[in-house]
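Quick one - first record:
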Amino acid sequence: MKKWIAWLCSLLLLLPLAACGNGNGQGEKPLKNVRLAEVTHSIFYAPQYVALAKGFFKEEGLDVELTTTWGGDKTMTTLLSGGADIALVGSETSIYVYAQGTDDPVINFAQLTQTDGTFLVSRKKIDHFTWEMLKGSTFLGQRKGGMPQMVGEFVLKQHGIDPHNDLHLIQNVDFANIANAFASGTGDFVQLFEPTASIFEQEGKGYIVASFGTESGRVPYTSYMAKQSYIKANKDVIEKFTRAIYKAQQWVASHSASDIAKAIQPYFKDTDLALIEKVVDRYKSQGTYATDPILDEEEWNHLQTIMDEAGELPKRIDLETLVDSSFAKQAMNE
């Protein structure tokens, strides 16, 4: 949380310089450029790549320019400073920004994933895993203040484990280096995203024993958001963007993991097709991919409960303050 406060305070000083964004996009047939910043590049976001690969954005008259900004703080900085029109990032970031005070809050308008995307990986193969086995172990967790870490601690507590007293919790390793740290011998257990978790299994470096997504329940893990001022000035863009995402969500829901893997492979050229299919199947089977873009109140409240238990919730914020589901509902009604 301190990290978020530091960069937000410095960023707010710069915002007046970047207040002016895109035009109103009232052109007729030429594609409207939309700059999209994603927090990371992952099979976890398969419906987004389906929307790109299947031309759903272009069908709506949008030319989506995708950039990976690597991290919640960097993604939000890019959005707030005018470097992106829309961001795909954890909904908790909109809460952090709002809590610091702003007259142009970031609004969540479409949800993409509805569960955590990490898995618990053990260094040793365990035939009959129980969460009790983590007690006394060294657990290599995710960065403090991020959703993976908060969900990880929430799940441990749900299973009667105090993450700060019942095990040795390591949280000072950068996200990009967590997998390498585990591979080099750090930790008995590690919290990993796909496809790294499955790659470790293939190479005998670790074994998936549990899913944090399954254990933590539905939560708005990653959503599309934009500044309130951008949404007001570009309602047509948000409508079209949300419609394209909904088409992709429905396509993913109605197609096999094999079909989805083939569709998104161009966005993961260095990943084996069979591995992409395996990861998609794992996420699809546990309901990770939202089937519609609506972020509902139950999910929003659950998110804040997870943040609160992790000691990272600045204050409770009503759904209506930072979530606008009108575009999602319109897309579904059409």
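second record:
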Amino acid sequence: MPHSTLNQDLADFIQASPTPFHATQSLSQRLLDAGFELLDERDDWQLKVNGSYLVRRNDSSLIAFRTGEPGALERGLRMVGAHTDSPCLKVKPQPEIDMQGLWQLGVEVYGGALLAPWFDRDLSLAGRVTFRDCSGQLQSRLIDFKRPIAVIPSLAIHLNRGVNDGLAINAQTHLPPVLAHSLEPRRDLRALLVTQLQQEHPNLEIDQVLDYELSFYDTQPASTLGLDEDFFAAARLDNLLSCHAGLRALLDSDKRQACLLVCTDHEEIGSCSACGADGPFLEDVLARLLPEAESRIRAIQRSLLVSADNAHAVHPNFADRHDANHGPQLNAGPVIKVNSNQRYATNSETAAFFRHLCHQAGVPVQSFVVRSDMGCGSTIGPITASRLGVRTVDVGAPTFAMHSIRELAGSRDPGYLVRALREFFNSEALI
């Protein structure tokens, strides 16, 4: 697939995925359209050779897998891991604020967000709403306002002359978005959600909205930019870029090997949840895929996980924030991430294997080590490796502005990552 076509597909995926719930829905629909069968964890599974399946948990995490040809499972699984969540602003349970004649919603910062870029953006609202219908049953539905309905205005420089010398953002007082003028009777978020639910799901008969998980997001669509269209800018590249690359690689694989894609929620806040990488989701699925304990251990020891999560490209204005010998470039291929303190799970053998894969796929490859005097982020790689005992390599597409409301990648790097992961899913032998 030409990189322009692939990037448009990535842009469409990101646009349809403003929250982890929507990302999981988008992934599911593409897999179902490709012939994957949806499984329910509450049911008995009858898995077949050469089968293609997907299973969801919490509607925000997903595992898709192919069982491969006869004997493929016993030879080991080729697993790719990514995450569906991104730093954002989440609406509080009782969020209504009437201030100076304006109606605002209180928000909580989710994950390690760069907060300054959230100001002066056209924001919309999306997420999951749980309600009681007119028959007394509980139901949940996804909603997405899509249009700009809110903004967080900056304070004028005339009222804060030192702002360019450093702005300390108070998450409690500075971030509540403005949605409208205050009106009588007092505006109510739950009443607004009933209206939105009925617009998006006309056949619903709603008695009362009981709760919700809603996030604000930037409505600006993804774009390819630069004089030579070298760059790709979008919200939530960390880590929807990797989810999309894993999906495309899985759908394009030759179906002979046992392959698995796991996209989990809550990575940005430590992965410790029922549907996060530090929960039992993947282990539960593998136990049903390989029910006999000793056979499962043997298969896992023959398996390998590629943990795909974006990497830090060297910024031309802040090059001193990188180790001089480890500054990944945009459009120079996926980055192998290494940390001696196991913040990344890469070791010499798994790194060598991924380098070999990239060579086989005709893809350039880079490496990243954080400066020795700086702290290091982490991924689902070490978590999954420690829970399963599976060999792991941490990789990712190089990007700028990680955890901003809008991030920047090289326009060729999504294609490079897809090619490397497809080569992995089709590989005859693992290390």
